[in-house]
Amino acid sequence: MKLFGTIYDKTMEWSKHRFAGFWLSLVSFIEAIFFPIPPDVMLIPMSMSKPHLAVRYAVYTTLASVLGGIIGYGIGYFAFDWVKEIITNWGMQANFDKAMNWFETWGVAIVFLAGFSPIPYKVFTICAGVMQMTFLPFVITAAVSRFARFYLVAKLSAWGGEKYADKIRRSIEIIGWATVALAVVAYFVYTLTK
């Protein structure tokens, strides 16, 4: 079944759309609050298809992510009782507890590391609000870490450019199904060790 090739082609097509920068910013903004898909999914193909705009895309992604992070911070600060039920219902309690422990241990440094963590960024933004972290250091650290990550992703994608886009396209079914298989194995290992 050739599923991932179609998705890949559609993503590359959308990455060249004239409103792609807006959609990238929107995804980045809402990902820092509640959306489960990271902006890298759009940033990578956009940077590959238009390498000369890669840094601009990294800036868009960073600004939108930091603005979304501020909203996430506000939710944690002002409306945590309401959000706690959502965190539990979405199955994110373990990630949330882990992030809270990291905040207690590392303080503002964890916001920097969160920019590169596999744990969803929204968990860290909400935790920062719950912990009532000082606002300005939170924003500055979030901006630096998010820009470092998105700049790196954008530049590496731009460096590969169209030639790697073609190579990835030829192997996308193998990559896609291998990722699904890995996720299923990881899920079973996680549930068995719980």
UniProtKB/TrEMBL annotation:
Bilayer-crossing regions: 20-37, 57-80, 101-121, 133-153, 174-193
Domain of life: Bacteria
GO cellular component: plasma membrane
Residue ranges constituting the VTT domain according to the UniProt record: 57-154
Keywords: Membrane, Transmembrane, Transmembrane helix
Name recorded for this polypeptide: Membrane protein
Organism whose genome encodes this protein: Muribacter muris
